[in-house]
Amino acid sequence: MGKPKSERRLAENEAMAVTRNLRISPQKLNLVAESIRGKPVETALADLTFSRKRIAADVKKTLESAVANAENNHDLDVDQLVVKEAYVGKGLVMKRWRPRARGRIGRIMKPFSRLTVVVKEAEEQA
């Protein structure tokens, strides 16, 4: 007796990829995620390739994973894909400290993030 199969959270013309434990603050990651929202996948990949942000390579890997999921798992047309959603969530925060003057400490927060990318097959425009 297994548990029943859960319903699919996305529509039939959508695919998703999630990357967890990215070592960057959510605020910085959101700047890169914001730059690809709503764009065609081809344009988004080009933007990420030539972006000067360090995290852009990891965002590009996540987007490529979502495209591969769309193609292989859901039989969607890769040329028609658009980035429907790209959102960032908080992960864990490593807490470190550094000695400061007069016996005090300075807290150093090292945050992690989670990135979710949803691609959608756009309808043909005539």
Automatic annotation (TrEMBL):
InterPro entries: Ribosomal_uL22, Ribosomal_uL22_bac/chlpt-type, Ribosomal_uL22_bac/org-type, Ribosomal_uL22_sf. Pfam families: Ribosomal_L22. It comes from the Bacteria. One of its GO terms (cellular component) is cytosolic large ribosomal subunit. One of its GO terms (molecular function) is structural constituent of ribosome. GO terms for biological process: translation. Signal peptide: none annotated. Gene3D superfamilies: Ribosomal protein L22/L17. Keywords: Ribonucleoprotein, Ribosomal protein, RNA-binding, rRNA-binding. Coiled coil: none annotated. The keyword GTP-binding does not apply. The globular domain of the protein is located near the polypeptide exit tunnel on the outside of the subunit, while an extended beta-hairpin is found that lines the wall of the exit tunnel in the center of the 70S ribosome. Belongs to the universal ribosomal protein uL22 family. Part of the 50S ribosomal subunit. This is Large ribosomal subunit protein uL22. The lineage of its organism: Bacteria, Pseudomonadati, Pseudomonadota, Alphaproteobacteria, Hyphomicrobiales. The gene is rplV.
